[in-house]
Amino acid sequence: MKTVFVTVGTTRFDELIESVTSSEATQLLKFRGYERLVLQVGKGSLLPDADSCAHLSVEAFRFKDSIAEDMKQADLVISHAGAGSCLEALGAGKPLLVVVNDKLMDNHQLELARQLHMDHHLLYCTCSTLIETLKNMDLSVLQPFPPGQPKNFANFLDKALGVK
To answer: Per UniProt, which keywords does this protein have (predicted)?
Structure first.
């Protein structure tokens, strides 16, 4: 069953969960051949139930010890732009659509998403542009993230965050 895995990491990002479970988003995902939506909702106030989407089967949970198996089973990962979540999805070799939380102050997530997009490793959008992105996304343009370079990634993060 073709699956979309959505993760917000340890954060609260109800707007992403609302956006991805909207009727329009689930219709677009169904049109693209996805049948199952697995949602990791973190600290959010929303925990959609199995009947919450007319077009897809839905499973939702807050936290697990590991989401590696969920990522492994996914055909598409939709994630917040947290560095850990991005790195885990890219490391799993999954097509990744990052949804930047544009409500955050001092938003380093946008810088990270923009750079990884420029390097053709992921697509990114905001909640307000998610529908348009789902309509037009071309996952074939994505290139695998080179494995085994955590130091380079850490250096990039330090530079993006102004640590060094």
So the answer is: Endoplasmic reticulum, Glycosyltransferase, Transferase
